[in-house]
Amino acid sequence: MMDPKIFDEFARRLSAAMPPGLQSLQQDFEHNARAALQGALAKLDLVTREEFEVQSAVLARTREKVEALERRVAELEARLGKGAEAPAADETTPGDLDMDGG
C-alpha cells in the first residue's frame, strides 16, 4: 500500500506545474463549488451537533419524568382499586345526573 503523503506531494507538484490560468480556474471552481454546497445545506433544515445533543438530553429527562409519572399513576390506581370497590350498576355517579337535578 502506498503512503498517502506521496499523493499529497504529487498533487502539490502538479498544482505548481499548472499554468497560472488553470490555477485560477481551479480556485474559481473550488470557490463556486463551496458556495453551491453551502447554499444547498443552508436550504436544509439542519441543526448543529450541539443543538442535537441538548435536545437529546432534554428528551431523556422528559422520558424519565414520564416513566416516573406512569409508575406513580399505577401505584395510585392500585391503591384506589384496593381501597374502594367499583360502584354498583344501580348506583348513579355525578356524571349520570340530569341537569334538572334528577
Brief digest:
The chain has 102 residues and is mainly α. Helix content is 72%, strand content 0%.
Summarize the structure in words.
With 102 residues, the protein is an all-alpha fold. It has a domain at 46-82. The chain is built from 3 helices and no strands. It has helices at residues 4-17, 20-43, 49-83. The termini are far apart. The mean pLDDT is 76.
SSE topology sketch:
Layout: H1 4-17, H2 20-43, H3 49-83
Question: What descriptors fit this protein?
Answer:
102 residues, 0% strand, single chain, 3 helices
End-to-end gap: 93 Å
The total strand number stands at 0
Topology pattern, helix = H, strand = E: HHH
The mean pLDDT is 76
% residues in beta strands: under 5%
Shape: rod-shaped
| Largest sheet properties | none
Low-confidence stretches: none
Q: How would you classify the helix and strand content by structural class?
A: mainly alpha
Helical content band:
over 70%
| Rg, nearest Å | 35 Å
